[in-house]
Amino acid sequence: MVGVHRLDALVTGPQLAGAVEAFLAQVPNAHTARAYRLTLRALVGELGAATPVAALDADAIGAWFTHRWGSASNATLNARLDALRSATAWWRTQDWIISDPSRRIRRRPRTPDRTRSLDRAAIEALLSRPSLPLRERSLWRMLYETAARAQEILSLDADELDLRNRCAKVRRKGGAADVIVWRTATARLLPRLLERRRSGPVFLTDRAARLPLPPADLDLATGRARLSYRRAAECFQTATGNLPGGPWTLHQLRHSALTHAAEDGANTSTLLAYSGHTSIASLARYTRISPEALARWQQARDPATRRR
C-alpha cells in the first residue's frame, strides 16, 4: 500500500470512525448514504478508526485514493470522490478540519458515449427468456418500464408499492421525493414476486443474510436481505455477456427507456418527469436518437422505399 500512514499528531476533535458515522447519519437519502459508506469505510480501514479526523493530510489522502481507485472507470472514480468531498465539506462545517484533504484529487471528464442505448428488440428478447428467474425478470422489466435508477428500485419496500395504480414513491438522486409509474408487464410480475409480502424489501437475496443487517434491509419472515446493487449488476452482466455489445449494464436499461421515449415523441416535460431530472442539460445525453431509429427514419424518407 502506498503513501498512507497513520497520523498521530496531537490534535483535538473526533476520531475518524466517529466522524464518518456522524456524517452518514445526517445524509437524508438512504441509498446515497449506502454508496458514501463504501468509500468512507475504505478510508477508515486504511488509516485506522482512531485516527484524528483533524490530522487528515491531503498528500496522504491523494496517494491512497489514487492507489485505490486510480484504475477504476471515470464514473466510479468520480462517484468515490463525490463521497469523500461531501464528507470533508461537512466536517469543515463542524470545524473538525480546516482545509480540504481531498484537494489533491481531480475529477475525470465524462467520456462521451453514443452507443449506450440498446435495441428495443434485443431488450424484449432478453426479458422474454423462458429461463429467466422471476426476480431478475421483474427487476429488469421494472427498470426499463420506469426508467428509474437501479438504486431507486432496489431501495423500494413492499409497502411503498401502489400495485392497483401501478406506481410507487421513490427518493431520487439528491433526496427529492418522486413517483415512478410502470406498465402492464411489470404489474403482472410484481404480485408473483411478492407472494403476498406486505413489508420488507421488494427485491431480496436468494439466501438468508449471513451478517447482521438493519431490520429495514431484511425480510423478517425469511431472513433474506435486500438485493445489493453489486449483486444485481453481476446477474445482469452475466445474462448479457454473450449478447451484441455485451455485457450490458443496468444503467443501459434506464438510458434505453429514455431514448426510446424520446424517439416515440415524448416532449421535454414528460421526459423530465420520466427520468427524475431537474435540468434539460442532464437529460440531453439520454435523448440522442439510437442508430436503429436513425436507420428507420432514413428508410422512411428513402425515395426508393416510398416507390415500393
Structure, described:
With 308 residues, this protein is mainly alpha-helical. It folds into 2 domains: 16-93; 120-293, hpI Integrase, Chain A (Orthogonal Bundle). It has 14 helices and 5 strands. It has helices at residues 16-25, 30-47, 58-69, 74-93, 120-127, 134-146, 150-154, 184-194, 229-240, 250-263, 268-275, 280-283, 291-300, 303-307, and strands at 161-162, 167-171, 177-181, 204-208, 224-226. β2 and β3 (177-181) form a beta hairpin. α1 packs antiparallel against α2, α6 (134-146) crosses α10 and α10 (250-263) runs antiparallel to α11 (268-275). The relative contact order is 0.09.
Low-confidence stretches: 1-10
Strand content: 5-15%
CATH topology of the largest domain: hpI Integrase, Chain A
Structural class: mainly alpha
Helix content: 40-55%
Strand order of the largest sheet: 1-2-3
Named at the architecture level, the CATH assignment of the largest domain is Orthogonal Bundle
The level 1 CATH classification of the largest domain is Mainly Alpha
| Global shape | globular
Biggest sheet statistics: 3 strands, antiparallel
User: How many domains, in number, for the residues?
Assistant: 2
Kindly report how far apart the N and C termini lie.
Answer: 68 Å
Mean pLDDT: 89
Number of strands: 5
Going by CATH, what is the homologous superfamily of the largest domain? Intergrase catalytic core
SS summary, helix count: 14
List the helices and strands in order.
HHHHHHHEEEHEEHHHHHH
Q: Report the C-alpha radius of gyration, rounded.
A: 22 Å
